[in-house]
What we know:
By secondary structure, the protein is an alpha/beta fold. Helices cover 44% and strands 22% of the residues.
Amino acid sequence: MNFQQLRSVREACRRGYNLTEVANVLFTSQPGVSRQIRELEDELGVDIFERNGKRLTGLTDPGKDMLVIIERLLLEAENLRQAGQEYADQRAGTLTIATTHTQARYVLPKVVQTFRAAFPEVRIALQQSSPEHIAEWVLSGKADIGIATEGLSQFDDLVSFPCYTWQHAVVVPEGHPLLALSSVSLQDLGAWPLITYDVGFTGRGHIDAAFREAGMSTDIVLTAMDSDVIQQYVSLGLGVGIVASMAIEESRHHGLHAIAADHLFAPNVTRLAVRRGSYLRSYTRDFILQFAPTLTLGEIQDAMNNGG
């Protein structure tokens, strides 16, 4: 039994039993992957995969139980490697952070700047995508940390921490009728074409929930992942924007005005997630504490140890 056999099994499951993709990921050949899997099955005395001819089609019942153990063994192997690097050089390495555009653009710069001053030998790799992909990257080990507002708390194999609360705001061009109102209601807002985030991004769920609970339909004419893109189209007069309040920069989008929407939409909580059971290097823990200063090291350790 060896780690290459275990990786072949894990990647076969992750890649939908497509051994060509598995071979590409593991930098080997398709026959080599098939051989690794078959040798492990022979050693264990059971079939891990169901087959249609030579093609893998799914996991057998024993295979489902074994996959859990294989995932745990490979995670512990990675933890061992991380621990070795930690004690060989505590202040050097790579911290990979998967996050959304809004977090990377408006929240992370100051944290990264402070972190780099404390750990100048640590390279930071930022990966931007949807919350779903962020979770997948952390679960697969492609990212050490995931940061997003939606989705991260839904995965049992992730430990997520609440970091900070924020609100949405409405943005309109200069002279827009909504600016003349002392307080904007959902009915006032819903009378206009809207531009906001894609479903699953940056608190979009709370926007939809507010209109749904009010029994209102909306005319969302354009959606985007990027707050800057939303504001650009608002400035062109295509609709009223709903964006994260921290994404509003008057100097960047001349002629746009912000209207508070705290009373319209529920507050949003940005969360930071790591893979359950993973070994956190000292600089990773330090980054978490800098991004979420209300947390303590003890709370982080307790959550990691107790599955919080």
